[in-house]
Amino acid sequence: MTLNTVATQTPSQDQAAPSPNASKGTVICVFCGSNPGTSPAHLAAARSLAQAFHNHKISLVYGGGTAGLMGEVARTLTKLSGPSAVHGVIPEALLDLERQTRSGNIDEELYGRTTVVSDMHTRKNLMAKEVTEGGPGSGFVALSGGYGTLEELMEVITWNQLGIHGKGVVAFNVEGYYDGLIQWVRTAVSAGFISPGNGGILVEALDAEEVVTQLREYRVSEDRFKLDWSQK
């Protein structure tokens, strides 16, 4: 994957100069499952996150699905804020799994704008680009999910550590779902595989309002790698 396509700031710019995107709206990328989970708390968390986005005039970019938590957060925010507040990015191959379509396309009136891309890498780069070009408080949040959610979450954490972006990364920890991951980070820090500063790249939130607050108040780790990801 060409990681530098999502880099819009160098690490020094994140911590020094005012952001050139300060006048832009907040954009938050949500990673989450295409299943609803066995506890109703997961769907409730998706709805509460959409409500918080609406209250704070935050735009959503997500993986474009219509089922499970993905569908719930997109459908709820579209109903509250309108289709322009939601942008789904989905690989063409996954469209076959989507049931909520109109003439072969995902219904914009229900789920917001949808962009169909060729592959998973393009999907992730496009979502990350919208976040890095967003205004203050933009970032990434993981609701509960499976393999794909964890992979996406760990990738944006790694990109933060490498200095590819300086946006916040939050685990919305519903009913202790991410307790194991949070403990793993602590273990990796104590074992010497993650620096103490970079152990704070991922932050925890226990409710939707805390997600918004954590991203607004996010501070970039001083331990990040000072690498140049600009095009040569």
Descriptive overview:
The structure is a single chain. With 232 residues, this protein is an alpha/beta fold. Helices cover 38% and strands 16% of the residues. The protein has helices at residues 11-15, 40-55, 68-81, 108-111, 120-132, 147-161, 179-190, 208-216, and strands at residues 27-31, 59-62, 86-91, 101-102, 105-106, 113-117, 139-142, 168-172, 202-205. The strands form two sheets. A seven-stranded parallel β-sheet has the order 6-3-2-1-7-8-9, sandwiched between helices. It has a two-stranded antiparallel sheet with strand order 4-5. β1 (27-31), α2 and β2 (59-62) form a beta-alpha-beta unit. α2 packs parallel to α3 (68-81) and α2 (40-55) crosses α8.
Q: What is the number of E strands?
A: 9
Structural class: alpha/beta
Biggest β-sheet: strands ordered side by side in the sheet: 6-3-2-1-7-8-9
Largest sheet: 7 strands, parallel
The run of helices and strands is: HEHEHEEEHEHEHEHEH
Shape: globular
Instruction: Let me know the average pLDDT.
Output: 89
User: Which strand-content bin applies to the residues?
Assistant: 15-25%
Terminal CA distance reads 17 Å
Number of helices: 8
Spans of at least 5 consecutive residues with low confidence: 1-18
Q: Radius of gyration from the CA trace? A: 17 Å
Query: Helix amount, in percent?
Result: 25-40%
Short synopsis of the structure:
This protein has 232 residues and is of the alpha/beta class.
Main attributes of the structure:
globular, disordered N terminus, seven-stranded parallel beta sheet, 232 residues
Secondary structure blueprint with pairings:
Layout: H1 11-15, E1 27-31, H2 40-55, E2 59-62, H3 68-81, E3 86-91, E4 101-102, E5 105-106, H4 108-111, E6 113-117, H5 120-132, E7 139-142, H6 147-161, E8 168-172, H7 179-190, E9 202-205, H8 208-216
Parallel strand pairs: 1-2, 1-7, 2-3, 3-6, 7-8, 8-9
Antiparallel strand pairs: 4-5
